Every structure is written in structure tokens, then in C-alpha cells.
């Protein structure tokens, strides 16, 4: 799920595709564009980009405020990034496979 | 696009900082000043914060002063409140003033669009660089172009920045709605 104003969603999608391809995981990717706060609330969208694997977020959101915002991911080394790492996506897929 | 063009004079401001002291652009005469529109909640800002602190550390002896300004609507984005700005400034050991632009006037005057968005002014208060801090928000080790540092170095050596303007990358400034 993404919001247009956060530019990292293209790269996040590319990382997801790469991890799926590397792991030979046959998965259907549904891309949802979130355009309003009302939609965000309905989708329980805490920020862009959000990746759900079988409905489960790849990282527990740092806040549970639903709305149009850019998402902060805490990386393995403690840094904050607007992008999930490939390792994070890989772990989430493994967890759900 | 920003309202200020390369070569334009800075617009002075007086805003309250997280130290509860009023700071003005003109408090730092004879210094090169970097005004960075910033905030608390934006992950792009958070990704770049340590680099902002490092830039101030590295250039403090060269008469370069960073000034961070938060203009976001804190009603809609409570993480950007003045109280939370104080927490962030302390937590991240900000070595530059972090100011509240509560009525968003300064962001509008500068034409800031994103956080973070940097404006580098020389000692004569002329705009010399505007845009992103560098070319990689995600990974500081993968930065290939240090836009702001390169511009500061150029200005300090009396030359023109190699790149005077880049597209700021980050969250949009969160404007108040009427």
C-alpha cells in the first residue's frame, strides 16, 4: 500500500519483487494506492510504503495512527529509513511460507 | 519550486527554539547559514538527522551555522508538536537551533515544499545552494553525491557550488487547512 507523496514506494516494490524472485516465491502482488485519510483508516494504513505478507505487516508499525503519512522503518542496525530492508522483507516472507 | 532563487537574499525570521530562546537568521552575522526545513515525524528527516548533526560538527569551526525549522501542522501530525521537538532535539543531541514556525509563515516565504529541504546562504546572506542534503536517504554509506557538503566546501573556498540546486526529497510540508 502506498501514498503518492512518499517517493520510496517504487523502490520498496522493487525490493519486494527482487526478494520474491531470489527466493523463487510465486506470489501475487496487489498494489493499493491510498488517497485519503478515510481510506487509510479503512485499510489500517499507518504510512507509505506498507507491505503486508498474507495480511501481516512486515514490521510492527511504530505507531497505530491511521492516515496519509510516510512510514518509518527501523533497520537492523538501528537506523530509521523510509524503506524496508530486503532482509526485513525476506524474513517476513519466510515467516509466512 | 522554492520562492528563493539562487543569488537571492535570505529572508530574516525570528522563531522560538527548543531551548525556549528566540533565534533569528541575522543572529549569525558573518557566518554561512544553512536553513533546513525539518520536522519530527518524517522518516526521511529521521534518516538524515545524524548527517545534519555531523555536518554541523564538521563545519562549526568554519563559521557554518545550521538552523532547522519545523513548519508542520502539529494538530494533524502531533509528533511534530513543540514538546516533541524538544524531546527529539535532546534525544538526537542537536547541535544547532531547532525552531518552531507555528504559523508556517517562514516556510511559505521561502517556498519550502519538503522536509528535509536545505537552503545554504553565504556570509552575505545570498542563496548559494538549495535542495537535498545528499543523494541517498536510505543509506549514508551509499551516498555518491554530497550536495550540501560540496556546496559548503565550494562557498568556503570562494567558488561556485558544483551543483547549485537539486530536487528536495522527503515528506511534503504539512500545511494547515483553513
Portion in beta strands of chain A: 5-15%
The description of the largest β-sheet of chain A is:
2 strands, antiparallel
Instruction: Give the ordered list of helices and strands of chain A.
Output: HHEEEEH
In the residues of chain B, how many domains can be counted? 1
Q: List the uncertain runs of chain A.
A: none
**Gross CATH architecture of chain B:** 3-Layer(aba) Sandwich
Most extensive chain contact?
Answer: A-B, 18 and 16 residues
Summarize the structure.
Chain A is of the alpha+beta class and 97 residues long. Chain A has helices at residues 9-22, 37-43, 86-96; strands at residues 52-53, 56-57, 73-74, 80-81.
Features:
heterodimer, A: 97 residues, alpha+beta, two-stranded antiparallel ribbon, B: 178 residues, Glutaredoxin, 7-stranded mixed beta sheet, 4 helices, 9 strands
Structure commentary:
The complex is a heterodimer of chains A (97) and B (178). Chain A has one domain. Helices cover 33% and strands 8% of the residues of chain A. In chain A, a hairpin with a 2-residue loop joins β1 and β2 (56-57). The longest helix of chain A is centred in the first third of the chain and has 14 residues, at 9-22. Chain A has helices at residues 9-22, 37-43, 86-96; strands at residues 52-53, 56-57, 73-74, 80-81. In chain A, the strands form two sheets. Chain A has a two-stranded antiparallel ribbon. A two-stranded antiparallel ribbon of chain A has the order 3-4. Chain A has three helices and four strands; from the N terminus they run ααββββα. The mean pLDDT of chain A is 94. Chain B is of the alpha+beta class and 178 residues long. Chain B has a single domain, classed as 3-Layer(aba) Sandwich (Glutaredoxin), CATH 3.40.30. Chain B has four helices and nine strands. Chain B has helices at residues 43-59, 82-91, 105-110, 147-156; strands at residues 14-17, 22-24, 32-38, 64-70, 98-100, 114-115, 117-121, 127-131, 171-172. Chain B has a seven-stranded mixed β-sheet with strand order 2-1-5-4-3-7-8, with helices on one face. A two-stranded antiparallel sheet of chain B has the order 6-9. The radius of gyration of chain B is 15 Å and the shape is globular. The relative contact order of chain B is 0.23.
